[in-house]
Amino acid sequence: MNRFKEKLLEEGRTQDWIANKIGISKTTLSKYATGKRKPNYEVAMKIALLLNCKPDDIFFEENTNNTIK
């Protein structure tokens, strides 16, 4: 499970709820959740605020071996 989905579960939220709150389609949010697309900065911030975290916490991979991803 990716960090986006983990955070949804942790906060007790659904993709439908997030999509409705920020005014995007459920399909678009699903693509963000699966990593098929990356949200722009504004959308990433809105989602992160609703999930009580930072955009980096849910949309960007952790870099554990000091290489650029």
Topology:
Elements: H1 3-11, H2 15-22, H3 26-34, H4 41-50, H5 55-59
Structure description:
The chain is mainly α and 69 residues long. The protein has a single domain, classed as 434 Repressor (Amino-terminal Domain) (Orthogonal Bundle). It has helices spanning 3-11, 15-22, 26-34, 41-50, 55-59. The longest helix is centred in the middle third of the chain and has 10 residues, at 41-50. The relative contact order is 0.17.
Helical proportion? Answer: 55-70%
Query: Helix count?
Result: 5
Going by helix content, strand content and strand pairing, the class is mainly alpha
If you consult CATH, what is the topology?
Answer: 434 Repressor (Amino-terminal Domain)
Look at the structure and give the mean pLDDT.
Answer: 87
Which CATH top level class fits? Mainly Alpha
CATH-defined architecture: Orthogonal Bundle
Please trace the helix and strand order, writing H or E for each element. Answer: HHHHH
Strand content: under 5%
Q: Please outline the major beta sheet.
A: none
Low-confidence stretches: none
Shape: globular
CA gyration radius, whole angstroms: 12 Å
Number of domains: 1
The termini sit apart by 19 Å
| Tally of strands | 0
Fourth CATH level, the homologous superfamily: lambda repressor-like DNA-binding domains
Compact summary:
With about 70 residues, the protein is mostly helical.
Record keyword descriptors for this entry.
single chain; 69 residues; mainly alpha; 434 Repressor (Amino-terminal Domain); 0% strand
